[in-house]
Amino acid sequence: MSDKKRKRAEDGDHGQPKKRAAPRASPTDVIKVSLVPDDHEWAPIVGKAVRAFVHAQSTLFWKIDMLLTYPNIASTPGLTPSSDLSLNAYKKARKTKSSTTGTSHITTSEHLLHTSQHAKLDYVASEEETGGKEGLLSHYIGVYNPQSRQLQLVPARKLVLRGAVRPTPVNDDQKTQAANGLSARSNLRLTFGTKKSQRAIQDLTKNAISPSKPARTGQGQASAPLDPIASAVVSSMAATSSSMPSREDLQTQADESHPRPQPNLEAEKPADVYPVDQVVGSTILRQMAVKTWQEAVTNGEEILTKSRFVSHRVQKLVEEEDVRRLKTLKYLLLLLEWYGSLLPASKRGGARKIPDREKLREKLGSWGSSLVDAVADRFSEGGRNLSRWHLEKLIMHICALTMIVDGFTTDVSDIKDDLRLENKEIGKYFREIGARVAAMTESEGTKLGLSKAEAKARVVARLKIPLEFPKMRVVKGKRR
Q1: Cα–Cα distances in angstroms (integers) from residue 256 to residues 31, 124, 262, 430, 448, in the given order
Q2: Helical segments of 209-348, H only
Q3: Crossing angle of helices 323-340 and 388-405, rounded to 10°
């Protein structure tokens, strides 16, 4: 037999592991555990002892009219409150049903502790809401009596104490700084920043003064008074804006500076809107010689001019023996020939240039230098160039003369061709003198021997009372 077998035989059963038996408890080691029913309205609060005092009634939470002698706050994350901190206790009904079963005071009511005893902090202790990390736990406090060997468990609440910095009152300097829209960083940039950053801050604070938030109330609510700075600004704005022209004044100024002939706004009939003596001038009108036209029509000769509008109407006016309108037509021919002799200027914007005197004499020599110079002085700038404004003045005077010649209702096709303009452009000029522009009616086309399609393609301008002028456009500024 080997040495290992001999040794095992000598040891006998002492080498086998044995199971230790559990010690039996003596009757003196038994502890009786009992649960105290939650029949008190104010259950104890789990945690270290912090006193909570009660003083008065609250609208949201009802304070306890007693001194809490139970242990208090269970959790103070990130805080080390003073041991003698006094808290006011409050109670209200729970909004959500607790996860625990039953209808005890803990499941139906909610506690809150609050204090402003600290100089800068407000302490608030509240229960964990249902759904939190400890929302499904029930807390108890055990009271053990070593003499009677009894352990009593009492249902308890667990609150979490948190602190928040109390808002400090804003002084007048800070209010002024906020009203001006400037922060400390903005002040530094205004002082030491670049010109670009300074300009940006000035643009932001230019219109920063506005009523405070309570002042911007809705309808039916009284607005709060403005602060002194805003009141001073509003007062200065009222004094300044009182002398500013109204929209009607601006419209009047625009009408006075408009390139169209000055209309008689108090006229009761179209013939009084643009009198011939004003549009042409009595002196110029007397210099218009129409005898050659009258003789030619009497002799049955055809009168041909450089204008389609004039050539289509001269015979009719001679036959009607309306000398005043015939002279107006002769002056209109002068303006059209002078308009046709203008040269395009080197500048952009639709400006024109008057030719040299020699070239102008070649084109308009039959009119006489006095009449040509009078037209140049009236419709040009210094007798040399025509700006866009002067060119529009010339065209609008021509449109007014066509209305006078045609009895204040004219087909714009002939004058459109003479001015070499499109229907849209010539319609705009007639609207500027107060006329109403529309397509020719079927009856008007029938009188002229035009078909329905041809009449529809024609445009007719009518001067009626009251006049209708285009309104001045008001361009709204960009929102910052």
Answers
A1: 111, 74, 7, 17, 38
A2: 228-241, 247-256, 276, 282-287, 291-298, 308-311, 314-320, 323-340
A3: 150
Handedness of CA 259, 260, 262, 266 (dihedral sign): negative
Alpha carbon distance 167, 121 (integer Å): 9
Cα separations (Å) of 184 from 178, 191, 197, 376? 10, 11, 14, 65
Residue found by looking up tokens 């022209």 in the block: 245
- CA–CA distance, 443 with 452 (Å, rounded to integer): 9
Does residue 439 contact residue 452 with C-beta atoms inside 8 Å?
no
Q: Are 50 and 168 in contact (CB under 8 A)?
A: no
| Distance spanning both ends of the chain, measured CA to CA | 109
Rg value, the chain, Cα: 51
Per-residue CA distances from 304 to 221, 283, 309, 312 (Å): 78, 26, 11, 9
Strands 52-53 and 87-93, how do they pair? Answer: parallel
Tell me how far apart the alpha carbons of residues 71 and 87 are, in angstroms, rounded to a whole number: 12
Q: pLDDT tens, 338-373?
A: 999 998 876 665 578 888 888 888 888 888 888 988
CA angle 26, 31, 32 (to 5 degrees): 130
Alpha-carbon separation of residue 423 from 389, 393, 430 (angstroms):
20, 18, 11
**CB-based contact 309:418 (threshold 8 Å):** yes
Residue 297, token pair as written in the block:
């029509």
Q: Give 281's DSSP letter.
A: I
pLDDT digits over 161-220, tens only? 888 888 776 666 655 555 555 567 777 878 888 888 888 877 776 655 554 444 444 444
Helix axes 369-379, 323-340, angle to 10 degrees: 70
Rounded-to-integer distance, Cα 61 and Cα 126, Å: 12
Its sign, for the CA torsion 43, 47, 49, 53, is negative
- Residue 376, judged by CB atoms within 10 A of its CB (0-12, 13-18, 19+), counts as middle
Please report, as a single letter, which amino acid is at residue 51: R
Neighbouring residues of 388: CB distance < 8 A, sequence distance ≥ 6: 349, 350, 351
* Cα atoms in the Cβ-side hemisphere of radius 13 Å centred on 59: 0
Place of tokens 């906020």: 178
